[in-house]
Design a protein that fits this description.
alpha+beta; SH3 type barrels; 3 domains; five-stranded antiparallel sheet; 13 helices; 5 strands; about 55% helix; globular
Length: about 300
């Protein structure tokens, strides 16, 4: 699409915006989107995507980071600018750091939605990027970000806290002595879902710890990998050789789970063994698992 056509489009958008200046920003947002849609066939999907995300940035602050992320990752800025840095500066007046801070704030917002407790508590969510600025800069783990926000809300009288109050909580957490994570890689644990929506239906599942963070772990089960808070895990306290057996069994179950054409009855076996938190298989279970593996031409060699 040539430069002339782009200028015509932006001119039309400017006219509509001026006409509706006395009305709500939502009215402007909707009308401009309708104009974009009418030009969609002519412009092509990529440019349409770019324009609609550009419109989101000044009107919906907490969506700005998501829009900028898509513009960057899909390289939609390349239709008018050589680099993302130049695009942000000339199109929105943002420095590179400011743009990336908005992207980070959006990531923090998504972490809060995922990790804040949901068991009957009504915790207000952030309404603008300034409230999340210090959380984004601190580069804390997602579970810690949620803890910081919850503390800040409580200190604000269960209202949305200011960015300054969030910064104070971040500073206090950084200054407090760290309690070491008691788990280690390779350990076998039970999942305790509690208030983690990602673990819904996983009660009784056992898994292998594959990553240890400050306040959480990554646990590998037969059907996936999950980020789990320390309080949502319980160690089986197995001997090293028993842990090794469970690690090998987990890999076998995962290998079987990845077979796309498996029979539904196979899932019954996987779920049963995935909840049997014991470092052994009965003779019948071992034969059944081996028979199913042969059925799908899966060859298992015990790893050392």
């Amino acid at each position: 699409m040539n430069c002339c056509n782009q200028r015509i489009i932006f001119f039309l958008l400017s006219v509509v915006t001026l006409v509706l200046a006395t009305r709500s920003v939502w009215g402007i947002f909707v009308v401009n989107l309708l104009i974009y849609r009418s030009f969609c066939r002519t412009l092509g999907t990529q440019l349409y995507s770019k324009l609609s995300r550009e419109l989101t940035i000044p009107l919906l602050p907490l969506s700005a980071g998501q829009a900028l992320m898509e513009l960057r990752d899909r390289r939609l800025y390349r239709s008018t600018h050589r680099t993302f840095k130049e695009y942000c500066r000339e199109r929105f007046g943002y420095s590179r750091d400011a743009a990336y801070l908005k992207i980070s704030a959006t990531a923090v917002y998504e972490n809060l939605k995922k990790f804040l407790p949901t068991n009957g508590q009504q915790i207000p969510m952030p309404t603008n990027e300034r409230q999340l600025r210090f959380l984004a800069k601190a580069e804390l783990e997602p579970a810690v970000q949620a803890n910081v926000w919850q503390q800040a809300v409580e200190q604000a009288g269960n209202k949305i806290p200011s960015g300054r109050l969030v910064k104070d909580v971040v500073d206090k957490i950084r200054e407090s002595p760290k309690v070491p994570n008691p788990y280690h890689i390779g350990e076998i644990c039970l999942l305790l879902p509690k208030d983690n929506p990602d673990l819904r239906g996983k009660t009784g599942y056992w898994g292998v710890v594959t990553h240890v963070g400050e306040y959480n772990c990554t646990v590998q089960t037969w059907d996936g990998d999950y980020t789990v808070k320390i309080e949502q895990m319980k160690s089986l306290k197995l001997l090293d050789e028993d842990c090794f057996f469970m690690q090998q069994l987990c890999m076998r179950l995962r290998q079987l789970h990845q077979v796309p054409s498996r029979n539904s009855s196979v899932d019954w076996l996987l779920q049963g063994l995935g909840k049997q938190a014991k470092p052994y298989l009965s003779s019948l279970q071992a034969k059944l698992l081996a028979a199913v593996e042969r059925e799908y031409n899966l060859v298992w060699k015990q790893q050392k």
